[in-house]
Amino acid sequence: MMKHARSFVVPTVSLLQRRNTLADWTFYDVGALSRPEFDWLASQRNEEGSILVVLPGGGAGEVCIRKHVDHEAMIATPGDLVRHFAIAGVGSSDVGAAALARTLANHLNEPVGAIVAGYGMADIVQEALGGWFFFGAANRAQAVRDRFGTWVSKPRRGGFRANEGERASIIARCSRDTRTLLRLLYDDGREIKTLLGHSKGCLSIAFAFNQLRDLQGPDALTPFRNLKIITAGAVVALPDELQRVYQYLGGIDWFGALNSIPGTAHIRVPYSWHHLNTEIPLHMNLSEVLLGRYDPV
Length: 297
What we know:
- It is built from 11 helices and 8 strands.
- The protein has about 300 residues and is of the alpha/beta class.
- Helix 6 (about 125-150) packs across helix 9 (about 200-215).
- The longest helix has 25 residues, at about 125-150.
- The radius of gyration is 18 Å and the shape is globular.
């Protein structure tokens, strides 16, 4: 039995909220969360674009997670700047976002900001059609433009720090989770060191950086040359200026392959499907991925 299966019968968690955690159970290693964390997250209102700051560990009786409803709330909170972030995929709620971030936080032994990508099962159909497949199509079009040198618009020159109008134009093109990521990229004094995406989260990361490059030119990506980007469950087209990119796809992950870019360098994880839950067979073991246990194809 999964570690927190009993949470589905806790009276304080509504039927809708339990349904919203179903995709999280399927795709993410929710056993990395403590029982109090799971119950607290399952009772939260899932808001796309909100940020969960997830600390490593998570003691049995502790809630080592802080929630910020948006980017503005996060930067208004005193404390050290978070430098590692994760974005989960289609159908994930606060639970899935936190579980993905906890795996990365435990690996780095540092706090990780989880950008909430959706509302759980309540909007999985809408996300699949309007998010997963939209971003997949956009990323495939980007790959074609990159390979054949055709651009939708002439890139702007003049560096990364766009004026407020240009920032608003870029941000307005994106979903709420991608908007949050772009606002974090623009933060003064914040050097983001790690970005982890799973499933649709990979496509959100790619969309954000491709928007920056296409609208502001390659110089916009200069601050991110040392940023480590890890994608799991989708192989995406990212700008060549991003030099530390590691992409992973399960050997039997046909779902992730549907929105992956053929011919793009990646690392194949044998006998793995799309999910990261280590208690379900044929999972991708994200901890092993982060340790670099697999060789490039």
